[in-house]
Amino acid sequence: MRNISLKITFKLFASLTEFLPDDAENNIAEVIANPEDSVHDLIDRFRVPRESVHLILVNGIYIVPADRDKPILKEGDVLAMWPPVAGG
User: Which domain does 39 fall in, by range?
Assistant: First the structure.
């Protein structure tokens, strides 16, 4: 039995950066995920409040809320998250 893990790039923006691991540089950290991990699994692992995350992209592609509990991550993926933003 092999131990499979995925290295992904985890990017948090704006107020979410406080939830990055200590070894993060700027707003980016390299993290290890399991193939069965969903986006929500990683949000929970890093204690990011789900209600604080509005926009989620994997490799620049928007992840709809219905897919955030599915294991969609692959080796080398870039997972990026933003809180709700307001403009005027």
Answer: 6-82
Sheet with 61-62: strands ordered across: 28-33, 6-12, 78-82, 55-58, 61-62
- Can you list the residues of the chain whose pLDDT is less than 70? 1-3, 86-88
Tens digits of per-residue pLDDT, 42-66? 999 999 999 999 999 999 999 999 9
Give every CB contact of residue 2 below 8 A, 6+ residues apart in sequence. Answer: none
Number of domains in the chain: 1
With 0.85 as the threshold, say if the pTM is over it: yes
Count the neighbouring beta carbons within 10 Å of the beta carbon of residue 71. Answer: 13
Q: Is residue 88 part of a domain?
A: no
- CA atoms within 13 A of residue 67's CA, in its CB half-sphere: 10
What is the CATH number for 39?
Answer: 3.10.20.30
